[in-house]
Amino acid sequence: MPIQEQADERRPEWEIPSGVFIVTLRTPTRVNAYAAGWVVRVSEEPVMIQVAVWDQNYSHELTEDCDHFVVQVLQEGQESVARHFGRNSGRDMDKLAGFKTHPGVSGVPILDDCLAYLECEVVFRQTFGDHKVLVGRAVNSRVQCEGCALVYDYEDYQ
Amino acid sequence: MPIQEQADERRPEWEIPSGVFIVTLRTPTRVNAYAAGWVVRVSEEPVMIQVAVWDQNYSHELTEDCDHFVVQVLQEGQESVARHFGRNSGRDMDKLAGFKTHPGVSGVPILDDCLAYLECEVVFRQTFGDHKVLVGRAVNSRVQCEGCALVYDYEDYQ
């Protein structure tokens, strides 16, 4: 394929690499988990992490009174976990049912099977375009196993 | 190596994958470029991108009156470019000297040799811990060549 032809099909923002994450949001009354790629560190000391929630997602309803979230870093081979959390909606089902979890310090359920997790206390929220961003300070985090983080590849989710 | 022993050496936040980027900041009087990993999308429509600048970096001085930035996505094989922009300081040298560039719509120089770039107008800035975050709306962006984005690997920068 000629370089120009392929380049025309791609969008620059799609070239920004990311991992694949399950983000769990907790409010005083609800919990939901969704598949995410737009997760980033924003401070080294203290450790602070940012997630983003699309305004069409059920999880977006939880962002206003969300007090804690957990970022679960998936490892290579966990593409099917991402598909489960990405293709189903918390409006229709408890997406965490059937997954082994343990409670974090805030009570939020944390997936036993993931590379690493960071449980965060929400300290900031802001809308940008069609997403709401939450920034949290890590209050409980752990690497759970050996392995390499899963890097997002569009082809895995077709 | 036992799993536990290795797990103890790793920090959960280090397991969050990222690409490798050169971020160029432009103020009315200064331009500087630095190597970054903490770059993320925050809105699909309009396209908005976030970068973060460590408060010990020279670039941090530019964040207050920075009106535009460019995120240049590096591709596989460009580790030495990241090392150049990561190990030198704009306090001591013009890090862009010797690199082929072309001017963006804001006049900021854009590296000719990178996978893709997004030139953004700054719409938001906020300090989190030891970093300042800038969010920009993309005003000029392009995929420049075929290839795969470089994913950050600690070993490449020892």
Relevant terms:
homodimer; 158 residues; mainly beta; Pnp Oxidase, Chain A; seven-stranded antiparallel β-sheet; two-stranded antiparallel sheet; 2 helices; globular
Strand content of chain A: 35-45%
- The total of beta strands of chain A comes to 9
**CATH fold group of chain A:** Pnp Oxidase, Chain A
Q: Number of folding domains of chain A?
A: 1
CATH class of chain A: Mainly Beta
As laid out across the biggest beta sheet of chain A, the strand order is 2-1-5-8-9-4-3
Helix residue percentage of chain A: 10-25%
Mean pLDDT of chain A, rounded to whole units? Answer: 93
User: Low-confidence segments of chain A, ≥5 residues, pLDDT <50?
Assistant: 1-7
Gyration radius of chain A, rounded: 16 Å
CATH superfamily of chain A: Electron Transport, Fmn-binding Protein, Chain A
Q: For the record, give the distance between the C-alpha atoms at the N and C termini of chain A, rounded to a whole number.
A: 21 Å
Helix- and strand-based class of chain A?
mainly beta
The CATH architecture term of chain A is: Roll
Q: What overall geometry of chain A do the principal axes of the alpha carbons give? A: globular
Biggest interface, and residues per chain?
A: A-B, 52 and 52 residues
Strand count, sense and barrel status of the largest sheet of chain A are: 7 strands, antiparallel
Number of helices in the DSSP assignment of chain A: 2
| Helix and strand pattern of chain A | HEEEEEHEEEE
What is the multimeric organization of the chains shown? Answer: homodimer
